[in-house]
Amino acid sequence: MPLSLHAAFVPSALQMLGSTRALLGTAEQWCTEKGCDHAEIITAKLIDDMFDFAYQVKSVAVHSGGVIASLRKGVFSPDLATPPDSFEGLRAELDQASAALAAIDEAEMEAMIGQPMRFEFRSYALDFTAEDFLLSFSQPNFYFHAATAYGILRMKGVPIGKRDFMGALRLAA
């Protein structure tokens, strides 16, 4: 049986949203234990020319649950809004993304297959099918931003490992 678009994207995105949310909790607890200002994590970057931790987490939400609204419209533009500046605000972004993914059913996603999807940024545009946009653009961006957020926390000394990044695995019963 072929894998549906929903099965190829939604369960793994929910898994990573959950793990990213748990990483926020671990980072917040670490800040409390170390007497570290939350802003030290929220604004941390791997290198000066990259976006900060808050942007990485916001992008995890945008390229998972946030992309559902874009698929419905047929167009995606980068979210240039300032990301939340607190762990609570970042958790809310992830929770909204999780809710959007939980709300879309397999039939709706399957109906999107083959539909035109456009990426637009200023005067730049790329045309995709909905499934190619989701699986070749948004999903790689989603994992990139999740891994970068994880890397920032590791760089700052937050005690996390690969199991924390992977989150709750979907094991056979």
Can you put this structure into words, describing what you see?
Strands 1-2-3 form a three-stranded mixed β-sheet. It is 64% helix and 8% strand. It starts with a helix and ends in a 7-residue tail after the last helix. It contains eight helices and three strands, in the order ααααβααββαα. The protein has helices spanning 5-34, 38-42, 53-62, 65-73, 87-103, 106-112, 130-156, 162-166; strands spanning 75-76, 116-121, 124-129. The chain has a single domain, classed as Four Helix Bundle (Hemerythrin (Met), subunit A) (Up-down Bundle). It has 173 residues and is mostly helical. Helix 1 runs antiparallel to helix 5 (87-103) and helix 3 (53-62) packs parallel to helix 5 (87-103). The model has no long low-confidence stretch (mean pLDDT 96).
Give the SSE layout:
Blueprint: H1 5-34, H2 38-42, H3 53-62, H4 65-73, E1 75-76, H5 87-103, H6 106-112, E2 116-121, E3 124-129, H7 130-156, H8 162-166
Parallel strand pairs: 1-2
Antiparallel strand pairs: 2-3
Descriptors:
three-stranded mixed β-sheet, 8 helices, Four Helix Bundle (Hemerythrin (Met), subunit A), mainly alpha, single chain, 173 residues, 64% helix
Overall helicity: 55-70%
Number of strands: 3
User: CATH superfamily assignment?
Assistant: dinb family like domain
- C-alpha Rg (nearest Å): 17 Å
Under the CATH scheme, which class?
A: Mainly Alpha
CATH topology: Four Helix Bundle (Hemerythrin (Met), subunit A)
Largest sheet: 3 strands, mixed
Order of helices and strands: HHHHEHHEEHH
Structural class: mainly alpha
The assigned CATH architecture is Up-down Bundle
